[in-house]
Amino acid sequence: MSDKSRNFYQEYEVFSRRTDNAPMQHQFSLLAPNQEIALVMAQENFLRREPATDIWVVKRSDIRKMDQEEKESLQRLDNKDYRNAKGYGYLKKKWRHYEQEMLDEKEILSWEGKAKKS
Q1: Sorted alphabetically, which InterPro entries does this protein's record hold (predicted)?
Q2: Residue 33 domain flag
Q3: In whole angstroms, what is the distance from residue 48 CA to residue 35 CA?
């Protein structure tokens, strides 16, 4: 791509929603000379495949992402792990261990001796 065409086209990100209540979802990126043509291209490419109630076209350079320092500020400062549900997956293992302790090999073999004495 030459310098002239590289400056002519801009990168756009296309978002859409299927219904009025659905969240916006990123669909694809495209190259276009301006926002109006980017919207037309998005409609032509996307609406042929699936229905949508809304399409957003955003210039990639207008999207701001967090730098590393800002990402670090998202870390929790407090220790409230109890708020995160981890489920009860450990109970199956704990129950299996409990059952194995109840019926170990020595106990089962001792039943055989009691049965012969009766």
Answers
A1: PaaB, PaaB_sf
A2: yes
A3: 20
Instruction: Determine the structural domain holding residue 31 and report its residue range.
Output: 7-63
CATH assignment at residue 59: 3.10.20.520
Question: Pick from 1, 18, 19, 21: which is nearest to 10 by CA?
Answer: 1
Determine the Cα–Cα distance for residues 101 and 73; give it in Å rounded to an integer: 48
Say what the alpha-carbon torsion angle 75, 80, 83, 85 is, to the nearest 10 degrees. Answer: 80
39-66 pLDDT, tens digit each: 999 998 877 778 889 999 999 999 999 9
Total tally of structural domains belonging to the chain: 2
Transcribe 31-61 into DSSP letters.
Answer: EESSHHHHHHHHHHHHTTTS--SEEEEEEGG
For residue 47, the tally of other CB atoms under 10 A from its CB is 12
Model-level pTM greater than 0.70? Answer: no
